[in-house]
Design a protein that fits this description.
Blueprint: H1 6-21, E1 27-34, E2 37-49, E3 52-55, E4 62-63, H2 68-81, H3 91-94, H4 113-118, H5 136-144, H6 162-175, H7 179-188, E5 196-197, E6 212-213, H8 227-231, H9 236-241, E7 249-250, H10 252-263, H11 273-279, E8 305-306, E9 327-328, E10 336-340, E11 345-351, E12 353-354, H12 357-372
Parallel strand pairs: 6-12
Antiparallel strand pairs: 1-2, 1-11, 2-3, 4-7, 5-7, 8-9, 9-10, 10-11
Helix pairs in contact: 2-6, 2-11
């Protein structure tokens, strides 16, 4: 049995408090889970919530941004494990007419569920205007006109939102239920996560911290994500939509406890051990699936990133000290969400402040390293 070093945990809390006190972000939450329990949580700073501005509390909700991808992806693990879906099914056989109006490349018909979950599908920049997010029929019509940027599986490129809109529709096609409702009923409620929402209900809007840029954003070189997109998550309509690639809201405790139940699933829980084993098996190829920005192997399993044993855990967002089997997914504003099955540790860090990427990477590495050092 391992335990949490309370002194190291306090050092981690002090570090996060220092970030807020230095006005690098207006508010932040940090939570650590360990061996099935919440080991500690702290909230710091001030946030605009609903119609008021005041101290953020442990019940304040923050946008998870791309940490959402793992929540939705792990729901898909459940479909795979239950035999409702196969990794090698073609998307066109699940979503009738997918890309039919924009089939500039015949290879779009060969995109599989596996490709979508690994970001090797070839449609990283397929657009989905936020005005369409809430309406399924509008989303489907937009997806009919998508085109591929490159042949599936020949390379890797991050699909910021497009891949997960496909996964959301796959959930709806396979279950006959709205994807947000299905995730609530089949994953989040059975896990007892009352403060984690894919699709924020109107009555919870007053708990959500508004997003703030604390540094001038750098120019965006193409892609889907730019400051106006980020700030859309201050709108109730976009929060309700539950953008599956980046729109979940949560507090840090529920993020940490979500991963507790994935790294060590209960026998009577919503996820089986076989689902987790499949979902955390690295399926990308080091020779052709490298990040075009960093040049390193992305080490991707089904929607999640694994720390790996090649000395690149820090570059993958885990800091140093996580085991090779640690897995999770970071968010665009520096949100941290991962679990380590070897040490029993899970980490949730959320903030409403956006800094430049270099500062976010440094903070992420420090928090991950300090969190890992808490286990003794």
């Amino acid at each position: 049995m391992t335990s949490i070093n309370q002194g190291k945990l306090q050092e981690l809390f002090d570090y996060v408090e220092g970030i807020v006190e230095a006005e690098k972000v207006p508010a932040a939450q940090i939570a650590i889970g360990h061996e099935g329990e919440l080991a500690g949580m702290r909230t710091f700073g001030v946030a605009h919530q609903g119609s008021s501005v005041g101290p953020a509390g442990d019940d304040t909700l923050f946008c998870m941004f791309s940490s959402t991808k793992a929540i939705v992806g792990i729901g898909v693990w459940k479909l795979l494990d239950e035999g409702l879906l196969d990794l090698d099914e073609r998307v066109v056989d699940i979503i009738p007419g997918w890309c039919a109006e924009g089939n500039g490349e015949a290879s779009y018909a060969d995109v599989t569920v596996r490709n979508v979950m690994l970001h090797t599908g070839g449609f990283p920049h397929a657009p989905m205007n936020p005005r369409l997010w809430e309406d399924r029929e509008s989303r489907l019509r937009r997806m009919m006109g998508w085109r591929l940027n490159w042949t599936p599986d020949t390379q890797w490129e991050y699909h910021a939102t497009s891949a997960h809109w496909v996964l959301a529709e796959i959930i709806e096609q396979k279950t006959g239920e709205e994807f947000r409702d299905w995730l609530r009923t089949n994953l989040l409620d059975p896990m007892g996560l009352d403060n984690l929402f894919v699709g924020l209900p109107n009555e919870e809007h007053g708990r959500a911290a508004s997003i703030v840029y604390t540094e001038e954003p750098l120019p965006v070189d193409g892609g889907e994500v730019f400051p106006q997109t980020i700030l859309h998550f201050n709108l109730a309509s976009q929060r309700r939509a539950g953008c599956p690639g980046g729109g979940a809201f949560a507090n840090a405790a529920d993020v940490a406890m979500f991963y507790q139940q994935v790294i060590d699933p209960a026998d009577d829980g919503p996820l089986s051990r076989s689902a987790v084993e499949l979902g955390t098996t690295v399926m990308t190829n080091p020779d052709r699936h490298t990040d075009p920005l960093s040049g390193i192997h992305v080490n991707r399993a089904l929607t999640v990133v694994l720390a790996g044993d090649d000395g690149l855990t820090e570059e993958r967002g885990f800091g140093t000290g996580a085991s090779p089997s640690a897995f999770g997914h970071a968010g665009a504003g520096g949100q941290i969400a991962w679990g380590d099955p070897e040490t029993g540790l899970s980490v949730g860090f959320l903030t409403n402040g956006f800094q430049q990427d270099d500062n976010i990477r440094e903070r992420t590495a420090t928090i991950g390293t300090m969190a890992a050092a808490c286990v003794e």
